[in-house]
Amino acid sequence: MSKVLWVGVIFLAVGLMFVKIWLGVSISSLAYRYHKLEQKYKQEHELYLKLRAEEEYLLSPGRLRQLAKKLGLRPPGEDDVQAIGQ
Amino acid sequence: MSRQLVNKRGGINSSAKINFRLYVSFLVLAIFGFILWARVIWVQVFWGPSLARQARSQYVVKVKEQGYRGKILDRNGVVLAQSIRTYSVFARPKEIKHRYAVSKVLGKLLRQDYRVILKKLKKQTNFVWIKRNISDAVAERIRNKKIKGVYLVQEYARIYPQGHLLGQVLGFTNVDGKGLEGIEKSFDDFLRGKVKGEVVFRDARGRLVSFALRPKNLNGQDVQLSIDSNLQARAEEILARRVEQFRAKSGQLIVVKVKTGEILALANYPFFNPNIYFKTPAEYRKNRAALDLFEPGSTAKTFLIASALEAGVCRPDSIYFCEQGKWHLTKKITIEDTHKYGWLSVASILKYSSNIGAGKIALQLGKNRYFEFLKKLGFTRKVDLPLPGRAESLFQPLSKWGEVELVTAAFGQGWSTTGLHLIQAYLALADGGEFRPLRLVVGPEVKKSSGYRVFSKNTVQQVLKMLWSVVNEDGTGKMLKLTEINLGGKTGTAQKPDLVNGGYKKGSFVSSFMGIVPVDNPKYLIFMLINEPKGAHYGSVVAGPGVKTMALVLGILDNSIFKNKIKVGLNDQPPKVKIKFSPKIEVMPDCKGKSIRYALDRLVRAGVKPVFKGKGLFVIEQSIPAGTPLKKGTKVFLRLGEVK
Which of B82, B141, B151, B372 has CA atoms 20 to 30 A from the CA of B356? Predict the structure, then answer.
């Protein structure tokens, strides 16, 4: 009986050792993936911020007003308004 | 024993031979073992710490992470300032062999004079900045060149997408991201991103890996202002036009929401673009509305009259003799009005802006009571706004006030204040007599001192009625009358003091106008000041029209200020518009490749109702061919798209 127990304990110990190794490998692999994703997130976020800044610049009232002036746009006069139905 | 070892032929026997070999082997092994142990001890004891350090440096890397600097937003979330990551180039001159060639390459890529770069590379240092905050494209080109000794590092750059909009209020940061002026300086600690060091591991392939979870948000916090960027843009445009028209030195335009005391627009001219602060003279960076002191002139008469009414010294219909335009106060001092007035009521003194009338009311009120009211209106302390370097109003010590000082102070001479002080004091009048500090920042919540009553509601009503008459009757601002909006206000024209020779500078004026819209139920305050205009100097002529235009702009954003309510919405009846009839078109026009506007215009004139399909700004297909006769009521389908 005790022999069987010993064999069992040895098998369990070996099994646990393998589980530990497997967990270690998994953690490392996840850490790599996590780090890679984090880097990607940072890059995407940076790009997003740059594009937002660009959008804000493109839509800035001062710039639009200047462009409108350059293109000859102006507020409509009384004769420019036409009613096209209710 | 020795005899046993020697055989018959006189040689050594095999057993002895084996023993001998064993001894030798053991000896060799022992020596070898000793050497190894000696080496182990040598390496462990003497080289150990340094080798351990080297090993650690190979797989343990310390990285520093810095969060973004917070954004500055307007009341609607429009970004006024934000940080983005950019690259900066630096070099280690000692690692560079061919400095001339490197400087030539960098000069071309960075569009810089190569001699400047060469000078930097010739320095006997281990680190030198070549250029900071370069674009991603240029950084990529430099990276591809793989120049030894030239490196790229990520940094933050502060950008102001709206250009010069609100420039002086926002301020700017230096290349290291430290706020140096304006809101950037006042909220530097709040906006600044936090820095955190982290230990990561580097594997055999040089990949970095972290076993720690992502640190909590390191980014700085955002600051939200009460400014409406759209209104601000219009304010700056209006101000620039007024200053340029009168070839003035500078100007300011402030718009305040009465209900909350929030500053909606704060324009200063000349403009300042914080994106290029290093190229701008320091004079342009000044937030003049908070810093420039000027004599308020006639705009101050409103406070005198409100104070006198509140103190019970006079009533709106009390009359004062205005000396036919010349009042010899002392043998040397004569007070003058622009027109010869006889007896004027208090209401008329404000309406016609009589200096003599105001002076006489002031004498009756007394210096202590008048000064006390000015104090209550916030003139004796800095405006409670998070702006660096706000100016304090300038008064002579009250003990030195004689009759002359009191009389001149009544019509806003002999003391100086800022635009923000003045509009803050008017806010108390517009808001039912209760003093409340102005607000510029809505987030983070800034604790404000609670308000207190300065004038009774009755006094306020009487004064607002007088301010209405300034514009809507035959007062000094009669040319500013608006049919659409009930505009009231007070004109101000003050001579500029001569700081070198004393007295006042000839022909040098400050023109201002304080507008209240609508004056019967104040919702907005608009203050414009034009510094040293040429060609004209009256507040009603120089600054008044700017306030009038601004009032109309406000009407577009908040149509509740119009006299006749104009409702705008899907369920409302469209406003009645005079339709101009153009010659009718009888045949189907060619709309292909033309804009929607063109197609709409032509088809409506032909009496045809167009139906648009698809997305785009141009017509790419039409259901009826060009030239086909059209009947009234025909449906025309137009497919929209983009013209290639």
Answer: B372
Task: Give the residue from chain B lying closest to A58, CA to CA.
Answer: B161
Partners of residue B209 in chain A, C-beta under 8 Å: 28, 31-32, 35
Q: Do A57 and B161 touch (CB under 8 A)?
A: yes
Please count the other Cβ atoms lying within 10 Å of the Cβ belonging to residue B473. 15
State the DSSP code for B126: S
Cβ neighbours of B431 (radius 10 Å) = 19
| Distance (Å) from the alpha carbon of B84 to chain A's nearest alpha carbon | 6
The answer to whether B466 touches B305, Cβ cutoff 8 Å, is: yes
B578-644 topology per CATH: Trypsin Inhibitor V; Chain A (3.30.10)
The rounded radius of gyration (Å) of the Cα atoms in chain A is: 34
Residue of B501 and B143 predicted with greater confidence: B143
The catalytically annotated residue of B103, B229, B298, B393 is B298
Q: Is B298 an active-site residue?
A: yes
Contact B98, B126 (CB under 8 A): no
Q: Check: CB of residue B438 under 8 Å from CB of residue B263.
A: yes
**Cβ contact B610:B638 at 8 Å:** yes
**Would you list the domain boundaries of chain B?**
14-58, 67-225, 229-561, 578-644
Three-state DSSP at B199 gives: strand
User: Per the CB < 8 Å rule, is B79 touching A82?
Assistant: no
Q: What is the CATH number of domain B67-225?
A: 3.90.1310.10
Mean pLDDT of A34-42: 87
Burial class (CB within 10 angstroms; exposed 0-12, middle 13-18, buried 19+) of B36: exposed
A chain contacts of residue B79, beta-carbon cutoff 8 Å:
52-53, 56
d(CA B628, CA B507): 70
How many separate helices (H) and strands (E) can be counted in chain A?
Answer: 2, 0
CA distance B274 to chain A (A): 14
Query: Contacts of residue B207 in chain A, CB cutoff 8 Å?
Result: 32, 35
**CB B68 to CB A49 under 8 A?**
yes
Instruction: Encode pLDDT of B202-248 as tens digits.
Output: 777 777 777 766 667 888 999 999 999 999 999 999 999 999 999 99
Rounded Cα distance, B495 and B204, in Å: 78
Interface of A with B (CB under 8 A): 27-28, 31-32, 34-35, 38, 46, 49-50, 52-54, 56-57, 60-63, 65, 78-79, 81-86
Residue-range domain boundaries for chain A = 25-65
pLDDT tens-digit map of B286-324: 899 999 999 999 999 999 999 999 999 999 999 999 989
Distance (Å) of CA A26 to CA A13, B318, B362: 20, 92, 87
Phi, psi dihedral angles at A68 (to 5 degrees): -60, -40
User: Quick check: A56 and B161 CB within 8 A?
Assistant: yes
CB–CB of B68/B220 below 8 Å?
Answer: yes
Largest CA distance in chain A: 108
CATH code at B229-561: 3.40.710.10
